[in-house]
Write a structure and sequence with these properties.
membrane; three-stranded antiparallel β-sheet; alpha+beta; disordered N terminus; five-stranded antiparallel β-sheet; SSD domain-containing protein; SSD; smoothened binding; HMGCR/SNAP/NPC1-like_SSD
Length: 1265
């Protein structure tokens, strides 16, 4: 009679206790993580009434497991073919890398697409051929190396002069033509003459438009030339060589006028020509040139005597001279604002500059379209194959050579003149060239990254005490596989037409590789256990257990990056799409190719070859079967140090004080994150987009920090009647006076724009006509010889009707006014007048109006009796120029943009189609929809991730907890950004959006372990952490190691956002996943999927899965071992040793017991339980005391009365261990073969009662003759 069961004895051994073989098996995944290990068995437990649970969830998990099991079994059978086909497919996709297109133009990368800005840019490009006028210029900034000093002293400006003058002298030879600055620069408008030689003289004398602080001094004239001496009759004899350094234009014109008047041979046309030049100079404000400006170096021999400090020899007050800006030689058209040429200025009480930190010079160049049009019909380009592409090539070559010349000057050894200064040149050409050079893949950094990860993987997976069972080789082959799949993914991107950029070459491959390496550690961790004796099915079992986890991780990260594709910035959208594609390709490689490597690694193990050095000979020992089991169980344990560390850490966080600390820190972090979310400011630095340690980066840094100056335009469009809506257009211009940061003129108003200048020109003509008409020089029908040139031009304009079929009506001369009393230009002849103004007034070129279509050419000549003036086409594009100053922060820029946009919207509603243009509107436009786009992308990412979590976890409540935790991580990133001084921008938004999908990869796997484990919350949390901590630590470590390469990127946005922010994100994920999230599970953790009735911490011992084989039916059929056909029952003999026959015909059957230890078959299955996932363990064979073996050659084992033992064991603990071994020996003798089958079973039964134990050992050996 048995003794009662002692309930005080623990049913499942604690993890820290010494485990026997039987205890360890009961602590295996089959017993304590049943639904994760085999959902079919968990479902069977529910159906048999042994457990309660969520039947639907377990059934769906069973379906996933069955499919992954089938995939794993197919991979196991065709491992070699899969690897070969994968190599072909990946190699084919890699061919796509030959057709890569790299975008390095800053506008292609950073300008918002898909919105109103893209439409505005397309409209500008349609009419101008470029998107921003300011990008055509060549700029140069001079700064001090000593930031505390001032640049306002003579030597600094003289050094500025030397550098600019030397750089301006560069020439390029393209198309068999030598190109200089004079060929490329923008020239102020000059009057047209019938006499061609006069136009040639003016072309030589009139210099390029150069905006420079040197124009406040006489030294500014040294930049103007002319390069060659013009031949001017009667002038060269008196003045010698014409040069702006000594030129007094007003006096020169006066002497020329006197000479022509005294010459008897001078004609009226010559006098008219002189009068026209005089009128032009008066209108432009050309007077004494530079000779009355102070000299920076009054000791210069060329310094004119008329200079105010020539006699005193005193250095001028540079700050006072620069205050208010500088004027060029044409004072009415060339006023350079102080804010444009002086940076970092500090002023005194009288608003005079007393200190400054930078000087800027701007060389105004033509755009490629303007350059092409200018030289299109010129003899210089007739044989050069002139085209728009050639014009662009010329401009790019000159700007590149200019920048190189500046760098060359600064590199000159022994030159102390520039040792205290930094000169940095900038142009859109050099910027794009720099981006192109730094956008190329850095194969050295990529190679170092791969080597580091391979070394880390090899060290982590290598077993120094057991080289045969190590996993270094398969891990390192997995890294190489991911490198190949990453390259193939990039090839797919190229084939899909996604252009590459700096993020593609420097960031995307590393992120994709780091996320994929994580999955390698999941799968290698999955077969680190070798307790399953059926190794041929091991790959299928790994896929069954871990396939869904790998798929979920890949899908969640891919969807996270896909959500970031909503951002309208091209480089970020391309980054998101390419990252999604690479993650997807890597996911397929991990799911379908890497398991084939696992299969080959398992075969290596069975053949006892060493890890990595598998070709070296090895020596193996043959162990007794029971000893082998002990060996395997020992090898399956984690390294002692790692296991002890994990156990101590889990004990620590489950301590009561640590729980309280964890909850407290969660609340504190939540409050701080909320505060950071509110306080975090929008921010965008242009320097982040430009490679560090380049002239372009230094220039943008100085320009942004010291100048804060931007040139903007208000653009008016077509489909608008300009002649009839002149008043509305003027109101539009005047409205900008209320916009903050706009530079006003000396009177506190805005500079005139083209319509006002057009009107003033017509008023002057009207006044000239009125004077001539009053004096009788002009009548109703004609003009006379004494009429002025302006009066004659006004006569022609007044006669214009504006009708093409009847263009002239002289009766209108006395009735019409060019401009009425309200300042409105005659609407009927508006476009006729426009043709005359554009080609006969110097103010047109200075207006920066860029009227499109360009006004038709018509040059007035008083001798021309032809009255008709061609009518220009209706305007479709005009510009109103403005200057912004003092914009140093994103907040200020954003406020100005918002106010200007509101103003434009207001006038759009009034019928004036318009929009603003300029650098602020190009690169800061992202902020106006950024928060909305982040919200939409975040909502989409949360929704997709939530659906994936439900599929993965099969629990809505668990998915909600995981998503809430992901949002918590998202909020913490705002705090991290605040600490790192990373402001919110579209770049940071990518990481924020992707953080949702990336963070749940860890917490979802912890939650899965928590749901599928058996026991109370604390025990299930302990089991979940023990299972996932190694994978999480390896994943975070490899990700950080890969990201370290990004620290060396030359782009600040990569270092700031992808290095600092991503590493901070992984650290936040580590702390959150391993500390904070477990606390949430302890507080709000949901019920497990399976709750056993009989045992608290494990399921009831399952019966062996046996196949009932009828001897009569099986006669003559082949016996199948491990899915392999081995022999036929009667006529063949095979030799198979150490073969587990759990799934084959049983030598004896054992009664299923409800006790905590059962048959050896069950115990064996505890570690190596194999199910294809399609069959539930529903039909378990009951005990037969007298099982018969076919041919009566099986020994009788009924001497052990199992029924009696079973009845007695109802009151006692018992252990039954069955260790079957089958030996099949086949002998060939000619055409005959003899087979000998030997079956051996070691059965050990242990009974324990009330402090005493009894044991009985029985060995039964059966042999077939």
């Amino acid at each position: 009679m048995g003794l009662p069961i002692n309930d005080s004895i623990p049913r499942v051994p604690e993890p820290h206790s010494e485990l026997t073989i039987e205890d360890e098996k009961l602590y295996s995944d089959l017993y304590i993580r049943t639904s994760w290990f085999d959902a079919a068995l968990a479902l069977d437990q529910i159906e048999k009434g042994k457990a309660d649970g969520r039947r639907t969830s377990i059934y769906l998990r069973h379906l996933f497991q069955s499919h992954f099991f089938k995939i794993g079994r197919s991979i196991d059978k065709h491992a070699g073919i899969i690897i070969f086909m994968a190599a072909l497919i990946l190699g084919t996709f890699c061919v796509g890398l030959k057709s890569v297109i790299i975008h390095s133009n800053v506008n292609q990368l950073w300008l918002e697409v898909g919105g109103s800005l893209e439409q505005e840019l397309a409209y500008t490009d349609k009419y101008l051929g470029y998107i921003d006028t300011s990008t055509n210029n060549q700029l140069l900034i001079q700064t001090l190396k000593n930031e505390d000093a001032t640049i306002l002293y003579d030597q600094a400006l003289l050094s500025h002069l030397k550098v600019v003058k030397q750089a301006l002298g560069v020439e390029v030879f393209i198309g068999e033509v030598t190109w200089t600055l004079k060929d490329l620069c923008q020239l102020p408008s000059s009057p047209r003459f019938d006499e061609h030689f006069m136009e040639q003289i003016l072309e030589i004398v009139i210099p390029c438009a150069i905006i420079t602080p040197l124009d406040c001094f006489w030294e500014g004239s040294k930049l103007l030339g002319p390069d060659r001496d013009p031949h001017i009759p009667m002038i060269n004899e008196k003045y010698g060589t014409i040069s702006w350094q000594s030129l007094d234009p007003a006096r020169l014109l006066e002497d020329a006028s006197k000479s022509f008047h005294t010459e008897d041979k001078s004609s009226k046309s010559d006098q008219g020509m002189i009068a026209k030049v005089e009128q032009y100079m008066k209108q432009a404000g050309i007077t004494t040139g530079y000779i009355k400006k102070p000299c920076l170096n009054p000791f210069d021999p060329q310094c004119p005597a008329s200079s105010p400090n020539k006699r005193s020899r005193q250095t001028p007050d540079i700050g006072a001279a620069l205050s208010g800006g500088c004027y060029g030689y044409a004072m009415n058209f060339m006023h350079w604002p102080e804010e444009l040429i002086v940076g970092g200025a500090e002023k005194n009480a009288t608003n005079h500059i007393k200190k400054a930190k930078a000087l800027q010079t701007v060389i105004q160049l033509m755009s490629e379209q303007e350059l092409y049009d200018h030289w299109h019909d010129n003899y210089k380009t007739h044989y050069a194959g002139w085209s728009l592409k050639k014009a662009k090539e010329v401009l790019n070559a000159w700007q590149e050579k200019f920048s190189n010349e500046v760098r060359k000057i600064m590199r000159e050894e022994g030159n102390t003149t520039y040792s205290a200064y930094d000169f940095n040149a900038f142009s859109s050409t050099t910027l794009n060239n720099s981006l192109r050079a730094h956008s190329k893949p850095d194969f050295l950094h990529l190679s170092i990254c791969v080597i580091i990860i391979m070394v880390y993987t090899g060290l982590v997976l290598y077993r120094f005490g057991d080289p045969v069972n190590g996993q270094s080789g398969v891990g390192m082959f997995g890294i190489l596989l991911l490198c190949a799949s990453t390259a193939a993914g990039l090839g797919v991107c190229s084939l899909l037409g996604l252009a590459f950029n700096v993020s593609t070459t420097q960031v995307v491959p590393l992120i994709a590789l780091g996320l994929a390496v994580d999955q390698i550690f999941i799968l290698t961790h999955g077969y680190d256990s070798r307790r399953n004796s059926n190794e041929q099915m091991h790959t299928a079992q790994i896929m069954k257990k871990y396939g869904l986890s790998v798929l979920f991780n890949g899908a969640s990260t891919a969807s996270a990056f896909l959500g970031a594709a909503l951002l309208p910035i091209p480089i970020l959208r391309t980054f998101a799409l390419q990252a999604t594609i690479l993650i997807t390709v890597n996911l397929f490689a991990i799911l379908f190719v890497f398991p084939a490597f696992i299969t080959l690694d398992l075969r290596r193990r069975r053949s006892s070859h060493m890890d990595i050095f598998c070709c070296l000979p090895t020596f193996t020992k043959v162990h007794h079967p029971i000893e082998t089991v002990n060996n395997d169980s020992l090898l399956n344990k984690p390294k002692k140090c790692q296991k002890l560390t994990i156990k101590l850490y889990i004990d620590l966080i489950l301590n009561g004080k640590m729980k309280a600390l964890g909850i407290f820190t969660i609340l504190v972090i939540f409050v701080c994150s909320t505060y950071a979310t509110i306080k975090l400011q929008d921010g965008f630095e242009l320097t982040d987009l430009i490679p560090k340690n380049t002239s372009e980066h230094n220039f943008i840094s100085a320009q942004s920090n010291l100048f804060g100056f931007y040139n903007i335009y208000a653009v008016t469009q077509g489909n608008f009647e300009y002649p009839q809506n002149q008043k509305l257009l003027r109101e539009y211009h005047e409205a900008f006076i209320r916009v903050p940061y706009i530079i006003k003129n000396d009177n506190g108003g805005l500079p005139d724009f083209w319509l006002n200048q057009f009107r003033d020109w017509l008023k002057n003509l009207q006044n000239a006509f009125d004077r001539d008409y009053k004096s009788g020089a002009i009548s109703k029908e004609r003009w006379y010889a004494n009429a002025s040139a302006d009066g004659i031009l006004a006569f022609k304009l007044l006669a214009q009707t504006g009708h093409v079929d009847n263009p002239i009506d002289k009766s209108l001369i006395t009735h019409n006014r060019l401009v009425n009393s309200d300042g409105i230009i005659n609407p009927k002849a508006f476009y006729n007048y426009l043709s005359a103004w554009a080609w006969n007034d110097a103010a047109y070129g200075a207006s920066q109006s860029n009227l499109r279509p360009s006004p038709r050419m018509w040059i007035h000549s008083p001798k021309d009796k032809h009255m008709e003036i061609p009518k220009s086409a209706p305007l479709s594009y005009t510009q109103l120029p403005f200057y912004l100053h003092g914009l140093y922060t994103t907040k200020d820029i954003k406020n100005v943009i918002e106010e200007i946009r509101e103003l434009c919207t207001k006038f759009n509603a009034r019928g004036l189609p318009n929009y603003p243009s300029g650098i602020p509107f190009l690169y800061w436009a992202q902020y106006f929809n950024l928060h909305v786009l982040i919200g939409l992308a975040l909502a989409g990412s949360i929704l997709v991730t939530f659906v994936l979590s439900i599929i993965f976890l099969q629990s809505v409540s668990a998915s909600i907890l995981v998503i809430l935790n992901a949002i918590f991580v998202f909020a913490q990133l705002f705090g991290v950004m605040l600490v790192l001084d990373v402001k919110l921008s579209a770049i940071a938004a990518v990481i924020l959006i992707a953080s949702i999908g990336l963070s749940i990869c860890f917490t979802a796997n912890i939650t899965l372990g928590f749901l599928t484990s058996i026991g109370n919350r604390e025990r299930r949390l302990r089991l979940a952490l023990e299972h996932t901590i190694p994978y999480i630590l390896h994943s975070i470590t490899t990700s950080i190691l890969i990201l370290l390469i990004l620290y060396f990127s030359p782009f600040e946005f990569i270092v700031k956002h992808f290095f600092y922010l991503l590493i901070s994100f992984w650290l936040v994920c580590a702390v959150n996943s391993l500390f904070h999230f477990p606390m949430l599970l302890l507080l709000f953790g949901m019920r497990p999927e399976l709750v056993p009735y009989q045992h608290q911490n494990r399921i009831s011992t399952p019966s062996p899965q046996l196949k009932s084989i009828n001897s009569s039916k099986s006669s003559g059929k082949a016996i199948t071992l491990h899915n392999k056909r081995t022999c036929r029952k009667k006529s063949h003999h095979c030799h198979v040793k150490n073969t587990n026959l759990n799934n084959e015909q049983s030598l004896t059957t054992i009664t299923e017991e409800p006790s905590w230890q059962s048959s050896a078959s069950s115990l064996s299955n505890a570690s190596g339980y194999i199910s294809d996932g399609n069959k539930s363990n529903r039909n378990f064979t009951r005990v037969h005391n007298n099982t018969k073996q076919d041919n009566s050659n099986t020994a009788n084992v009924n001497s052990i009365n199992i029924d009696a033992a079973t009845a007695a064991a109802q009151q006692a603990f018992k252990s039954i261990i069955v260790q079957p071994e089958v030996t099949v020996e086949t002998h060939h003798n000619g055409n005959q073969q003899n087979t000998k089958v030997t079956a051996t079973a070691n059965i050990k039964l242990e009974f324990t009662t009330g402090g005493s134990g009894s044991g009985s050992d029985s060995d039964v050996k059966k042999e077939n003759c």
